[in-house]
Amino acid sequence: MSSSEYSAASAPPPIAVTHAGRRTRLKWHRARRRPSDTPFTASRIVEAMRVGASVEVDLLIHAERGFAVLHDRDLAHSTTGRGDVSHASAAYLRGLTLTDNVGDPTDDSVVLLEDLATMLDGIEIADDAMLQLDFKEDAAALDDEALSIFARAVEPFADNAILSCGDADAVTALCDAAPDIHVGYDPCHRGAIGRVLHSGDFRGFVFTACRDSSRAEIIYLDQELVLRAADLIAAFHAMKREVDVYTLARADASSMARFTRLVERGADQITTDDPEGFFAEKLFANAPESERPE
Length: 294
Known about the structure:
Elements (H helix, E strand, L loop, with lengths): L2 H6 L7 E4 L2 E7 L13 H10 L2 E8 L5 E2 L21 H5 L2 E3 L5 E5 L3 H8 L9 E6 L8 H11 L6 E5 L2 H10 L4 E4 L6 H8 L2 H11 L5 E5 H6 L3 H7 L3 E7 L4 H12 L4 E4 L2 H12 L8
Helix pairs in contact: 4-5
């Protein structure tokens, strides 16, 4: 019996693993529970919030200054639509469906941030659930209307949401507009990884990240950076920040080795397209020998 078969019968939802006494959350990247999932479906977002998972979705501004839950600006890449999301009306986007991992249409509608509160209304959101809203643009894309729409959209579930972005100014603007939302920051953009690896100034990297987004509760770090700098997570912990490490695609042998190293280095959360697979592997590995199937 495989580890996935072992876990399927009675396993709890794949929201965290425990290794050497340390609990690490599994974040559902692009609202995927497994790699075969279509990204950003309403059903997976609702499921994640109900079971207490950490789940991430991307945000892009559409023509009416609200936010589409999509990663690619070109609608043809992941939906049945055409054109740039910034030119698409809310009505047009609501009329589209998502396409699956091979480009075939699905029955899942494109989600707008403005509709999330209605989707979650009546759902018993678990206390530990956290919806990461990862803004894929920068502060220059924001205006008063976009900020107002963002604030109204997230207000009903702000306690269970965290805003993240690679642009510290955008983080500040959006979190000022919605002061009850949790704050996250990704300092690994705009050539930052190459600069710190070239200079070796990891202490300066940590200081700058914490200075640029002083309210950030979670820092999002590229896995390559963490694997090259053994004490990087500890340095952020010393600054009272949790660390999320991204992104592990599939729970194969190579990724499991990386996963274990990241957990051992203190990752509080690991972003993955395969929470179910990593959870199953760790559940199987941690089972007493007498309970493992032949």
